[in-house]
Amino acid sequence: MILLVLALLVPRDTVLVEIYAVTTNTRVVVEALAQDGTLLLPAQALHELLGVAFPSPWISLDQLRQAYPTITARWSPEMARVDVFDDLGVLPATRQFRETTRASAFAAMALPAYSGPFGSVAVDDQRRALAEVGYLYKGRLSVQGRANDHGVGQWFVSAVPFPRLFLNASGGSGLPPQVSGRVQAGPVWISSSWTPQGPLDVAGLVRLGPVQAFSSRQFGVLTVTPPASHVTLQVARRWADGRTAARLSFGPSYAAPFSYPLTR
Q: pTM above 0.85?
């Protein structure tokens, strides 16, 4: 009886798999389970790499996709690797990476998670000088101003009221003010920017399973990537001249749904 219980508890058909978080450029090698064609990954490793939490000790890729429907998780058996793409920043590890190490792909500022004033003064060998001063509040609000020795100044205000909303405003001497924002809810992502005497720029993306539909004022792109496939089909149309382009790609490279396919 004890041997039977141990046989059921000890996992069989284990394989070494590399999990690669493409957005944060981090990876880990784990011992996964391959059962009836389904790959099961250890939940603890996913928590450490992606910041996600599951009640079960083993998680399938379908369960990961269902919990975070806007991500792309590709399993390559011949490469023994799982690639995880998180362009919309829904995974906790991606949000932390963007807030603490670099600006996000959608013009978000990197806001350290602390409060306090900051400032700087810079001078070069031609006696040109620039001063900056600002304040950060709990990594959610940034107010900053800068001015040079000729009296030319700029100001910036960024706010993240909650993780799914980002707001930004800027302006300066001789520069029109600009206001932009981004909101993400489930499989839908929308961004917009505004300047005086300029058209309102709006872009959005909706993802349903393997299909991603992106549209902006300039063009629209439909991207189809079948699950567990290295083939991606894109069809795009440019609104100004009515041109249409298609792109069929293969291999481990990821076709971003935010750009018009290059044809020359």
A: no
Task: Give domain status of residue 125, yes or no.
Answer: no
Instruction: Supply the DSSP string of the chain, one letter for each residue.
Output: -HHHHHHHHS--SEEEEEEEETTTTEEEEEEEEEETTEEEEEHHHHHHHH----SSSEEEHHHHHHHSTTSEEEEETTTTEEEEE-TT--SHHHHHHHHHTS--TTS-----S--EEEEEEEE-TT--EEEEEEEEETTTEEEEEEEETTS-EEEEEEEEEETTEEEEEEEETTEEEEEEEEEEETTEEEEEEE-TTSPPEEEEEEEETTEEEEE-SSEEEEEE--TT-SEEEEEEEETTT--EEEEEEESS----TTSPPP--
In a domain, 136, yes or no: no
Is position 181 within any domain? no
pLDDT in tens, 62-115: 889 888 888 888 888 878 889 998 887 788 888 778 766 544 444 444 444 567
